[in-house]
């Protein structure tokens, strides 16, 4: 394979280095994102296939930062890379919702929370706020 850059022709290796942590492995350069995904999962079995992400910092557009390589652009950039970082998508945990039950809210002096608040009566909220923070 050859890639033309300006007036020079540069030979593109048929191999690519996949890297995860300290482990590096040379693999066949796959033009198909899914085939490269299969190869990454074969060599890094501790990463589930559904969370694998390919990243690089080798493209000029990256400005030195690691960026995700999506399936949509894989075939456009694969010939420009020598090393691809194999990482996994971070799992986001959702916060635990607070109870909406008024009886679960404890107020000072054994007062219960009102079941309904008149939105037009704004004088009620400051009183509750003040009582909660009285010493």
From TrEMBL:
<protein>
    <submittedName>
        <fullName>Uncharacterized protein</fullName>
    </submittedName>
</protein>
């Amino acid at each position: 394979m050859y890639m033309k850059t300006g007036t020079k022709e540069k030979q593109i290796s048929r191999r690519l280095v996949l890297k995860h942590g300290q482990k590096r492995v040379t693999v066949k350069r796959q033009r198909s994102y899914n085939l490269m995904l299969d190869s990454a999962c074969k060599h890094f079995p501790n990463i589930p296939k559904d969370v694998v992400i390919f990243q690089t910092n080798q493209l000029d557009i990256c400005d030195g930062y690691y960026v995700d390589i999506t399936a949509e652009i894989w075939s456009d950039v694969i010939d420009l890379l020598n090393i691809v970082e194999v990482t996994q998508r971070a799992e986001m945990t959702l916060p635990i919702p607070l109870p909406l039950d008024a009886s679960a809210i404890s107020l000072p002096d054994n007062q219960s929370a009102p079941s309904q608040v008149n939105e037009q009566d704004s004088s009620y909220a400051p009183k509750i706020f003040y009582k909660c923070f009285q010493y």
